[in-house]
Amino acid sequence: MKDFLFKPFEEMTDKDYETVGFKSGLEIHQQLFTSKKLFCRCPAGKYSERYDAEILRHMRPTLSELGEYDGTALMEFKTKKDILYRINRESVCTYEMDDTPPFLINDDALDIALQCGILFDCSIVDELHIARKQYLDGSIPTGFQRTAIFALDGKIPYKNRQIDIVQMSIEEDSCREVSDAGHLRVYRTDRLGMPLIETVTGPNMRTPFEVAEVAEICANLVRSTGNVRRGIGAAREDVNVSVEGGTRIEIKGVPKIGRIPHLTYNEAMRQWNLLRLREELHKRGVTKETFDSKVGDITRIVKKAHYQPIRTATEQGMVVKCVVLRKYAGLLRWQTQTDTYLSKEISDRVRVIACLTNIPNIIHSDSKGDTLTSADWQNIKRAVGANDDDTMVLVWGSETDTETAAKEIIIRAREATVGVPSETRQALRDGTNGFERILPGADRMYPDTDLPPTRITEERLKRLRVNLPEQFWKREKWYRELKIPEDTILPLSISKFAELFKSFVNDWKIDPTLAAVVLIQFPKRLKKKDVNIKILDVEIMREILRSYKDGLLSRDGILMAMEKSIEKGKFYPELLPKPLTAKELEKIISETNNEISKEKLFNNEKRKEVLLGSVMNKVRMSVEGKILAEKIH
Amino acid sequence: MADDNYKGYRGRALSVLKNFDALVWSDVEITTTKGNYKGIILPRSETADQFHIVIKMPIGYNIGVAADLVTDIKIRGRKEAHYKIPEKEFPYEPNKPKVKLLGTGGTIASRLDYRTGAVIPAFSPGELYGSVPELADYCNLETEKLYGVFSENMGPEQWKGTAEAIGREIEKGVDGIVIGHGTDTMHHTAAVLSFMVQNSPVPIVMVGSQRSSDRPSSDAALNLMHSVKTAAESDIAEVMVCMFGPTSDYYGLLHRGTRVRKMHSSYRSTFRTIGDIPIAKVSRDAITPLRQDYKRRRNDRNVKINTAFEEKVSIVYYYPNMKPDIIESLIDNDYKGIVIAGTGLGHVNKPLYHALKRAHEKGISIYMTVQTLWGYVQMYVYDTGRDMMELGVIPGENMLPEVAYMKLCWALGQTTDQQKVKEIMLKSIAGEITEREPSNGYLIYQGGLPEVEEFISKYVK
Asked: Where in chain B is the domain with CATH 2.30.30.520?
C-alpha cells in the first residue's frame, strides 16, 4: 500500500487524489414537472404534513427474476420494522398504498425523460420495460420502486475530455421519512409516486471538485428543458466514490451540490484509512480466517454501574452484552473520516440493523472516557476472558436486539480484515457519511408483471426533437461571441427564453445585450418588488419585444410593460401608450417645466435634470430617454 | 422442445434470434445500428409484439432491442434461470397440531411466467417453509397440491376433488385444513364446500392473497400465518375464508363460507361478511371470536362428504330492459335451475313473466335473490313479487346470489324433485340463510362524513 496519509480537506491537491486513485461517479435524481404522478392520476407536487389515515405494513424479501435473494433485502428483513404510512387523501390514492394496480405510465413524464435522454446524447431504448427495484426499508409501500431504463450510452463534454452517461431511468419517487426509532419507522407519502429521472455518469471524475462541477452541468442541462422541478428536494444526488484497492461506495441523497466536495473527500479518506486498518490487522496476524471473537452476557456485572445509559437499561430489565474482539486493542479509535472513528462504523450497524436507535448504543474499552469505571472494565474483562490486546464492545437492549447487535458487531469487525465493505451510506451534515444499508445488487430487480412493455417509436422521438432546446454549452459559446453580460450567460443558456433570445437577435436584429438584460435581469429586478414573475412567459416577452422592435414601446418602457403584463396576467396592446406626436411631447415638457418652476430647488443648475426626470416619468413607455434628453438640452 | 429455446418469440424477432443461433438465456453482446447492448436474452411474453428482443442487462434492468436494427449477436455463454425458493424441510414437533394445506392455485404461492409475463401459481411444501418459516410456530404442516389453476378456472371437478380431499384428510386425523385458493372465486368455492362438507369436526380455512407472493409487501405471508393458526388452534369447525381485516398488515377476519364475498377488485381487505358479522378476528398471537354461534371443534371424525352437483344451473343478473330470450335460451339449453339476482326486494320486469312461467312448467327450479346483496328477498310487498311467485319463482331469503347458485347446483345434484329441492334450498345448513339480520350486518361507512373521518384517523386502517 502506498505510503500516504490524508491531509485536511483544504490541503489536499489534485496530485494527492491521483495518489490514492480517487474515482467518482454520480447518480442524479431529478423530479419532472408534470401535473400528475407517474403511475396514477394523483396530483404531483402537492406537499403537506397533514394526514387523514395511517396504514401499517411489513416487508419480506422475495426472489429476483433469476431466483436469488438480494443481500440488502435480507438485511432489512433482519431489522423487523413496523412501517407506518401517513396518508393525505388529496395527494395519495389506493395505487400508492399498493391496493390498486398501476395505471399506464404518464406519457408527459416519459416525453420529458426522453427529451433529457436526447440532450445527454444517449441512445434511446426501442422498448421500455418497467422493472421493480426492491426497497425493503419501506420507503415505498409496495416494497419496490417501478423504474425503467429509457436511455443508454450518452456523453457530455467536460474540460478537455468527456463524461460518460452510462444510463438513464424513469422512476417513481419514494416516501419521506418522518421518524425511525426502535422498531417503528414512519413515512409521509405525499412525494411518493412522483415522476423523476435518474442519470448515471461513469466514474470519470478525479477530484471532489470535479464531481460537483459535473453535477452542476448535468443539473443545468435538464433544467434547460424547462420541464423539471426546482426547489428543495427536487434534485438529489447519489455519489459513488472509490479509491485504489477500495470499493465502490454509494453516498445517498445529497440534497445540495455544494456538499459534494467534502462528502467525497471524507469517503475517500474513509476507504483509504480502512485499507490502512486492514494492513494493521494483518500485521497483528488478524485475517478473515484467523479472526476471533466472543460474546458474553454481562448484565449482572454492570447492574450497579454508574454509567447512565447502561443503568437505565438494566433498570428496565434489558440485558447488556460484551463482544470481545481478539487483538483489536486500540483499533476502535482508528480514524476513518474527519473526527470519526471505526467505532462509528460499528455503532451505525447496531443502530440500523439491530434497531438500537438511542445513541450512544455501544461503548468500548478503547475509549473508556466517562463510561464505566476501571474497576467495572476489570470485572468485565475477567468475566468474559478478554486479554490486554483485545477490545471489548458493550451493547445493551432487549435480548433479541442485543443478540442481533452482537452478531452485527462481529460481522463488521471481521469485514475490517477484508477491506471496505459494500454499503450505501447516507450523507451527513458535517460532510461525513454514515452506514445506511448493504449495497444492493442486480438481484433486487424484477420485471413488473402489472404493466406491458412500451414501444418508443421513431415518430415520438422526432416530435420531441423538434421542441428540444440546444445543449446549453453550445449556447454559452455563442453568447460569449455576442459579448452579452457575463452574469446573464449561464442563466440565459438554460432559460425558457433562450430560443426567444435567439430569434430576437437573429430575426429581429435586437441588440443582444439589451435582449439578455431584458430576459434575465429584468425579471430579477421585478422579483425584488415581490411580483409574480412566473407569469412572464414566452408569449408575453415576445409581444413586448415585438412592440419595442416596431417602435411602439421605448427601451425605457420595457420594464414597465413587463410589470403591467404581470398585473394583467397577459400582454394587451392597450397596455401600450398611444404614440406621442412631437406637439404633444412639447406640451408635456412645457407643462412640466411650469410645475417645476414653482418649486424651489437647492441646486438650480440641476433644473434641467429634474425636468428630464419628471417628464420621463410621464412618458417612459413611449419616448426614449436619449431622444428626450436631446430635446430638453 | 425447440420452441422453448426461443420462448415467446415470433415473427421478426424470432427469425433474427434463429439467424444468430441465440437461444433464450444466452449471455450475449448485441450489435445494432444504434449501439451495442450486453445482457441475457430473456423469454418474451407471448402477448407482446414480434419486433423486439428482451435482454436483461448486467445491472438487472430489462430493455427491448428492436430486432430490425440488429446487425450481430455474439454469444458469450448461457445461464438459465431457476426461480426456486430455497426449500427447507418443515420441522416436526410431536406436540404441535397437524395441519394440512391443500393447494388449488392462486397468487398465494406464485412465480413469474414468461409465457404471458404474468404470475402463475407454483406450490411446493418446502418452498412455503422456505419463505414463511413462522408457520412452524403453529403446527406441523403437510401440504398437497391438488390443482394449479387461477381461481376463475375452478369448476365442478375441482370443487368435488377438493371436498373429497378434505374428507380424506379429516379421516386421517388432521387437526385443521387450509386451502390455498385464488381470491376471485374464493367465495364461490367457500360456499360450495360449505355444502359438500357437512359436519366437519375441524376448521377448514380458505386463504389467498391479493398481492402475489413475489412482492415484498405481499399479504400472502401474513394470510398464511393467520390461516394456519386458525386451522391449528381455533375451535371453529366450519368452512371459513381467512383474509385481511383492514388493508394494513394487522389482523385477519374469519368469514363464514356462506356469507362472505369479494367486494373490491384489488384491495387487500377485499373480503367482507355480508348481512352479518364475521365469526372471529385472527392475529399472529390470538383468535378473538366476535360471536358464539359457530360449530365447535370435535374429536370424532364423523364428517359427511356429499359432492352431488348439477352443472346446468345459471345466475341471471337482471337489468331493466331484459328480454325474455335470455330465459328462453336457458330453457332451450336444458338448464335445470336458475338463480335470479333481482332488483330491490327481488323483482324482474313483466316481459319476462311468460318465459319464467314456461321455465317453471318445464320443471326448472327458479330462485330469487337480491342484487343489492344486503337484505332479504320479500315478494309479498309489491304485486310484482306476488305475480312472480304465482309463476313458480321461489324467494331465496337472504342467500347471496353466488351462494344460492352453488346451493342450487348441489341440491339439483341430489334430486330432481322440485319439492325436495325446495326443502334443501330453504333450510339453512351452513349459515347461508339467517333468521334475522343484525343492525351491524350492514355497515358501509360513507367517506367524507366528519364522524367517519374522525373514526378513520384514530385507527390504523
From this structure: 2-78
For the B2-78 domain, the top CATH level (class) is mainly beta
Contact flag B60-A444 (C-beta cutoff 8 Å): yes
pLDDT in tens, B376-394: 999 888 787 888 888 999 9
The reply to whether CATH 3.30.1360.30 applies to domain A292-416 is: yes
Planar angle of CA B366, B369, B370, nearest 5 degrees: 145
Q: In which residue ranges of chain B is CATH 3.40.50.1170 found?
A: 98-305
A350, with CB counted inside 10 A (0-12, 13-18, 19+), is: buried
- Determine the pLDDT at residue B60: 87
The alpha-helical segments, DSSP class H, found in A235-367 are 260-283, 299-302, 308-315, 342-353
Closest CA to B38 of B58, B62, B24: B58
Nearest CA in chain B to A77: B216
Which pLDDT value is given to residue A498?
92
Q: What is the pLDDT of residues B11-45, one digit of tens each?
A: 999 999 999 999 999 999 999 998 899 999 998 98
Q: For residue B271, what are the β-bridge partners? A: B262
Of A67, A101, A441, Cβ closest to residue B266: A101
Nearest one of A266, A237, A337, A254 to A25, comparing CA atoms: A237
Domain range list for chain A: 9-282, 292-416, 470-575, 582-632
- Asked whether the whole model's pTM tops 0.90, one would answer no
Mean pLDDT of B114-140: 66
Answer whether A142 sits within 8 Å of B217, measured CB to CB.
yes
Average pLDDT over residues B260-277: 96
Q: What is the DSSP secondary-structure string of B101-120?
A: EEE--STTSEEE-TTTSSEE
Residue A528: CB partners within 8 Å, gap ≥ 6? Answer: none
Start-end of CATH 3.40.50.40 domains in chain B: 313-426
Nearest to A455 by CA among B52, B55, B10: B52
Kindly give the parts of chain A with pLDDT less than 70.
63-79, 441-443, 578-579, 601, 604, 620-622, 633
Fold of B313-426: Rossmann fold (3.40.50)
Burial class of A605 by CB neighbour count within 10 A (0 to 12, 13 to 18, 19+): exposed
Given this model, what pLDDT does residue B1 score? 43
* Domain topology for B98-305: Rossmann fold (3.40.50)
The residue whose grid cell reads 405494513 is: A57
B81 touches chain A (CB under 8 A): yes
More confident call, A561 vs B157: B157
Strand-strand pairing, B140-145 and B98-103: parallel
Tell me if A65 and B56 make a contact (CB, 8 A cut-off). Answer: yes
Mutate which of A27, A39, A59, A63 to disrupt the B interface (most B C-beta within 10 Å)?
A63
Give the pLDDT of residue A614.
79
Residue A3: CB atoms within 10 Å: 6
Q: How many angstroms separate the CA atoms of B409 and B425, rounded?
A: 10
**Model ipTM over 0.90:** no
CB pairs under 8 A between A and B: 159
Active site annotation includes B288: no
